[in-house]
């Protein structure tokens, strides 16, 4: 073989060896870069998983909190409706008192009422002869004036009036009645 051919073969062999070395080094570097990329990707995936789990937990918490709030609103609304029904029942019971029970209640209320010059009743009560007779016996001054009342009376003391109608008493005592009804209904 000629010396030129040997030199060329040597150059080619060296080039092939160098090429293999360079390819091997590049493959190692590529493997390192790929390994780092995979590790980075795994970290990102894990981080996103933690974040998405946290977001999912947060969303779940909001849903549960919203549902609990809605349930509390519904319970409160139901309780308020029950108390309202209890107040309506009180009004109904007052309107269904027997004549004797009603008269006794009015007389008891008059004993506890503010003293005044005269008592104003509804037209219906003024026509109740037994009630008017009992009031006359007790020297209670009954006004000629009448008012639209569904029970009870008004005490006039000069220009001042004290409203003892059932409606006014229920309005004034509504909070106390609601509290008592709530304690009875929801204790």
Structural write-up:
With about 190 residues, the protein is α+β, with helices and mostly antiparallel strands. It contains six helices and four strands, in the order ααβααβββαα. Strand 3 and strand 4 form a beta hairpin. It is rod-shaped.
Secondary structure elements and their pairing?
Layout: H1 3-95, H2 99-112, E1 118-121, H3 123-126, H4 129-137, E2 142-146, E3 154-157, E4 160-163, H5 166-172, H6 174-186
Helix pairs in contact: 1-6
Feature tags:
187 residues; alpha+beta
Oligomer: single chain
Low-confidence stretches: none
Q: Give the structural class.
A: alpha+beta
Radius of gyration (Å): 48 Å
Q: Main β-sheet, in a few words?
A: 4 strands, mixed
Q: How many individual β-strands?
A: 4
| Secondary structure: helix percent | over 70%
- The helix-strand sequence is HHEHHEEEHH
Distance between the termini: 115 Å
Question: How many helix segments?
Answer: 6
Strand content: 5-15%
